[in-house]
Amino acid sequence: MTKPSSLHQPLPAKDFTIELFCRVDDALPEAKKPALAHLHPSEVVSEVVTIGLLYALRGQGYRAFYRWLHQELGTLFPHLPEQSRLFRLLRQYHPLAERFMADATALGVC
After folding, report:
1. In CA terms, which of 19, 32, 47, 71 is 20 to 30 Å from 97?
2. How far is the C-alpha of 54 from the C-alpha of 15, rounded, in Å?
3. 3-class DSSP state for residue 44?
4. Burial, 48: exposed, middle or buried (Cβ in 10 Å; 0-12, 13-18, 19+)?
5. Rounded CA gap, 23 and 110, in Å?
6. What is the pLDDT of residue 26?
7. Angle (nearest 5°) at CA 94 between 12 and 48
8. What does residue 49 show for φ and ψ, rounded to 5 degrees?
């Protein structure tokens, strides 16, 4: 008999992030590069929104999240901007990230 927990192993952070990015990118086909993207050529809106969603899901402070992002997912985001620039971008694209967040209801999250 197998253990019930072995049926539902958590997805590794890189795999989860790739899946999340693909869903975000598919949902935002009209998204273009940010106005200041010339500083970091690979910085597309879908990447910024994906990072914003990861930040919301992790529930950490700025520094701890940035450190985790750089260490764990740095290979997925090789042109990651410095910390303050990243969080300015997250604020700028927050309305797009909200499209992906669930609405709270009286019965829970829908």
Report:
1. 71
2. 13
3. coil
4. buried
5. 18
6. 86
7. 45
8. -65, -40
Q: Name residues whose C-beta falls within 8 Å of residue 60's C-beta, 6 or more positions apart in sequence.
A: 68
74, two tokens:
């740095």
Q: How far is CA 36 from CA 62, 74, 77, 78, 107, in A?
A: 21, 21, 17, 17, 42
> Would you state the structure tokens that stand for residue 12, as one six-digit string?
């590794």
Instruction: Name the residue type at position 13.
Output: A
- Residue 72: per-residue pLDDT: 93
Q: How far apart are CA 12 and CA 35, in angstroms?
A: 32
Walk along the chain (110 residues) and give the pLDDT tens digit of each residue.
455 555 677 888 999 999 998 888 888 876 655 544 444 444 578 889 999 999 999 888 999 999 999 999 999 988 888 999 999 999 998 988 888 887 655 555 55
